[in-house]
Amino acid sequence: MQNDFLVKKMDEIKDMVLNRILIVIMFVMVLGISISLLRISQTGFKLNYAVQFFLALVIVFLYLFRKKINTKTKGIIFLGTLYSMALSGLLSFGLYGFGYAYFIPSSAIAFVYFNKKTGWAITLSSLGVILLIGFLFNQGVFEFVPQSANYMQSVSMWLNMIVTVCLIGAVIAMFWNNLFSLLTSTFTHINNQQADMIKMNEQLIVARDKAQESDKLKSSFLANISHEIRTPLNIIIGFTDMLSQTNDADEKAELNQVIRQNSNVMLKMVNDIVDFSKIETNSLSLNLTQFNVKDVIESVEHDLKHVKPETVDLQVEKIEKEIYADKDRFYQIIYNLLDNALKFTGNGRVHLQCFDDNQKLVFKVVDTGIGIPTEEQNRIFDRFYKVDKFTPGPGLGLSLSKSIANLMGGDIQVISQPGCGSTFEFELSAMN
Question: Which of 87, 132, 350, 399 could form a disulfide with 341, with the two C-beta atoms 3.0–4.6 Å apart?
């Protein structure tokens, strides 16, 4: 994939170079041939000028249809035209006409658009042709015999040579300037691509490490959840058998209470797993209704009384506020935050604080528990992650709560210090 991208990019750069050279060569050929046409009466080389005029039209045609012809075909036509132009000038004027100058861009085109082998072949063959034609003219095999006897001493001949030399210099300067500029741009682009690829590789490594860590956590979660499910299930089965064997009313009530508590634990675990799968598949939806915040908080307080340790003081503030949100999900968030605080507070206090500023509702769950290490706080909301692997629960409560809070347009943040407790802050829009 990377090689395909580089090949495509190099083809684009070659095409840009070729288009720029086409403009320069087209200008030179049209201007040079226009001047040459004025010298037909002195040179008499009508066939030569006709050939050069035809080649100039090929260059113009190539430029006009440059976007419809692929780069390789365009390079072949351009190379053949320049080589033919050089041969035409050499065969007619020998080394006096400067036709050999067209060999220079021919060699450059061969190197840029094809390969080193082709480039060196064109360069060496051009030198061979120049030497051969020079030798043949020197031996009298070819002759440069202008129609006007004093053409070699005429102002038009010297003017043509001066103009030709200037144009050749301009072609070479513009060609190398354009080529250098485009190569500089290319190398800059390649360097930027390499920097982007290095950055992308670093991101991929991080993503790979996260995926591997997530895979480990999932494996740990599966092992943990099997234990978490078996424990209350065994209690339910065992206490159900004991319930059928006793006639004592007080003992039955106590057994029923234990069975009910463990059934609720199992139901909560199953609900958390179902919600997690819905979040993973982006299928978790909200059921928006109008409800009073106070009623929901009272329900949470009532349900937590059965799981609250006797050594922990649970203080719950209530606020009279009608909001439009998902009542069940709101209950789930408040319950999970308080339940999590109770799990990690062996002695002390768990306090739910409520604030209303008319723009948003803020709920703070403050505990005096063990706290969360600084290095763990960034991961506390990760799925399957548990700071304390010995604490009951599958490790989904905080992750689910944050995901649901975000879905409801709110957020959950944590501030904690090891040994000094934690504060979980849940913000929610107070829209009625």
Answer: 350
CB 101 within 8 Å of CB 168: yes
3-class secondary structure, 3: helix
- What Å distances lie between residue 365 and 50, 122, 139, 208, 382, CA to CA? 94, 82, 106, 35, 19
Torsional class of 298: left (φ above 0), alpha (ψ -120 to 50), beta (otherwise): alpha
Lowest-pLDDT choice from 41-45, 67-71, 84-88, 254-258: 41-45
The arrangement of secondary structure in 205-280, i.e. its CATH architecture, is Orthogonal Bundle (1.10)
Domain ranges of the chain: 2-201, 205-280, 288-429
Amino acid present at 356: D
**Tens-place pLDDT, residues 57-95:** 887 887 788 778 877 787 788 888 888 878 877 777 666
- CA-nearest of 354, 349, 372 to 364 is 354
Describe the crossing of helices 397-407 and 249-280 by its angle, rounded to 10 degrees.
Answer: 50
Identify the CA nearest to 430 among candidates 343, 336, 332, 363: 363
- DSSP label at residue 77: H
- The more confident residue out of 193 and 146 is 193
pLDDT of residue 265: 79
Q: How far apart are CA 378 and CA 152, in angstroms?
A: 88
pLDDT at 234: 87
The terminus-to-terminus CA distance of the chain in angstroms comes to 53
Q: Per-residue pLDDT tens for 92-113?
A: 766 666 667 778 778 877 877 7
Q: Are 74 and 65 in contact (CB under 8 A)?
A: no
Q: How far apart are CA 150 and CA 364, in angstroms?
A: 106
Global model pTM greater than 0.85: no
N residues, the chain: 432
Q: Which residues make beta-bridge pairs with 354?
A: 363
Euclidean distance between CA atoms 104 and 170, whole angstroms: 12
List pLDDT tens digits, range 126-158. Answer: 888 888 887 887 777 776 655 555 555 555 556
Helix (H) or strand (E) holding 372, with range, is: none
Backbone torsions φ then ψ of 310, nearest 5 degrees: -65, -25
Please give the CATH number for the structural domain made up of 288-429. Answer: 3.30.565.10
The two tokens of residue 335 are 């319950």
